[in-house]
Specification:
Radius of gyration: 16 Å
Number of strands: 4
Helix content: 25-40%
Shape: globular
Number of helices: 6
Distance between the termini: 48 Å
Structural class: alpha+beta
Strand content: 5-15%
Order of helices and strands: EEHEHEHHHH
Length: about 140
Amino acid sequence: MGPTKRGKGTKLMAVADAHGLPIAVHTGSASPHEVTLVQDTVAQGFTVKSPERLIGDKAYDSDPLDVALAEIGIQLIAPHKANRITLPTQDGRALRRYRRRWKVERLFAWLQNFRRILTRFDYYPENYLGFVRLGCILILLRCYL
C-alpha cells in the first residue's frame, strides 16, 4: 500500500479525575498495546501533581506496568486477566474502585461530541492532539463556568 493510502490509526489515551474531567491526554500509534502508552500519558498531564491511583480495564493487568507506576507513586487498579499465571496482586478492596471506571468512558463520550476529534481529518498527529487538548479545555470551561 502506498504512503498516501495508509490509514491514520491513532489511539487516544486519557486520564480523568474522580468527576470525569480530563487530567492528561496523549495520542499514539494504534499498533502498540495500551500498556506501553500509559507512562507517556501520565507524563503529559495538565496538572503538576500526578494521580494517586490509576484505574484501568483488564488490558492493564501487567506486572511491569504495576512496578513502573509504583516507582512514580501511582497505584494501579486493574482486574486480573483470566489467563494470568502469576499470583494475584489485586484484592477485593482496591477493585471496588473499578466500578467508577465509567467516568473515563463519559470523558470519551464528551470528547466525541466534537466532530473534529471523533473523526481524525488531520494528517499530522500534533494537530490532532492540539484539537483534543482544545476539546479538553472546553470541557473544563463548561464545568467550571
